[in-house]
């Protein structure tokens, strides 16, 4: 059944690399909505070391993860096998937001594939790494990544992305602050 690990072993890293989708869960400190976001594009997730991972956060309709991490830092990332042996892997940890104006942006960005519309990188220090059986997870066949988000971002110039982020990414659905005006402006210059 389930096991707790003190680090991301080679076997766990291989499992992570094989999964075409993962899920990110966060919640505000008090009240508000719990958020779970599915993430795709295999080249948007990186294992940085034995207990640290990161993913490329692309411009989307909301900014719950950013707001929640800035509120309390709590995050869980879940991978589950839809093919092969049943397995669920959860990475519980403390996350932080790196934006294009931060000194470590370029170094971290090099860890990921090219995607237009990158607005931040979420870095997570794993405090608990645990797997479980996944016996009830269905078998599903992966066909291919949807490239609609990349296509959407490619059709936007810097000004249009700035305007979209100002309207949709400054606050969470519960009103918590997410991206600052300065971060949005800086990101627009990196397009």
TrEMBL record:
Pfam families: PNPOx_N. Residues 8-131 form the Pyridoxamine 5'-phosphate oxidase N-terminal domain. InterPro entries: Pyridox_Oxase_N, Split_barrel_FMN-bd. SUPFAM superfamilies: FMN-binding split barrel (SSF50475). PANTHER family: PYRIDOXAMINE PHOSPHATE OXIDASE FAMILY PROTEIN (AFU_ORTHOLOGUE AFUA_6G11440). This is Putative pyridoxine 5'-phosphate oxidase superfamily flavin-nucleotide-binding protein.
């Amino acid at each position: 059944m389930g096991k707790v690990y003190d680090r991301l072993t080679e076997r766990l890293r291989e499992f992570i690399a094989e999964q075409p989708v993962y899920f990110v869960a966060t919640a505000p400190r008090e009240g508000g909505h719990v958020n779970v976001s599915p993430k795709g594009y295999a080249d948007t997730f990186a294992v940085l070391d034995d207990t640290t991972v990161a993913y490329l956060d692309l411009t989307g309709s909301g900014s719950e993860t950013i707001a929640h991490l800035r509120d309390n830092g709590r995050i869980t990332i879940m991978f589950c096998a839809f093919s092969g042996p049943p397995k669920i892997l959860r990475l519980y940890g403390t996350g932080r937001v790196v934006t294009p104006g931060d000194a470590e942006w370029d170094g971290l960005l090099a860890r990921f594939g090219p995607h237009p519309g990158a607005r931040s990188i979420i870095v997570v220090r794993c405090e608990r790494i645990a797997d479980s059986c996944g016996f009830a997870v269905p078998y599903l066949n992966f066909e291919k990544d949807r490239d609609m988000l990349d296509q959407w971002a490619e059709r936007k110039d810097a000004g249009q992305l700035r305007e979209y982020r100002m309207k949709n990414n400054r606050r969470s659905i519960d009103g918590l602050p997410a991206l600052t005006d300065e971060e949005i402006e800086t990101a627009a210059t990196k397009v």
